[in-house]
Amino acid sequence: MNQDFVFFWNESCAWKLFLEDQKLTKIGLMVDERQKETKIIQVRTGSDKSKVAIRVSQTVSMDCIIIWDLVKDFEIEAFDVKKDAMFF
Questions:
Q1: What is the count of structural domains for the chain?
Q2: What is the pLDDT of residues 28-75, one digit of tens each?
């Protein structure tokens, strides 16, 4: 949650609820449900309310952090981290 949005997610997609008008919108990131190990596990916000970080589980030992632009609805950058990474 940030000042403008509350975020919800399941294993394959994420949504943002705009607090001002209560409008729920799907975030453009899609995870293939056929890939059993790949799933969204966390969504985090920071001081920039136009961006969100989404952590996606990829393998038994690796995750991917995706920085997502909420205004333009696209991926800004992504990087891999080990599952036991202490940040995020």
A1: 1
A2: 998 888 888 899 999 999 889 999 999 999 999 999 999 999 999 999
Question: Would you say 71 and 87 are in contact if contact means Cβ atoms under 8 Å apart?
Answer: no
Range of the domain at 27: 5-82
CA distance 32 to 36: 8
The band of 88, judged by pLDDT with boundaries at 50, 70 and 90, is low
Amino acid at 77: E
Tokens of 43: 């969504």
Separation in Å, CA 28 to CA 16, 47, 60, 86: 11, 21, 25, 27
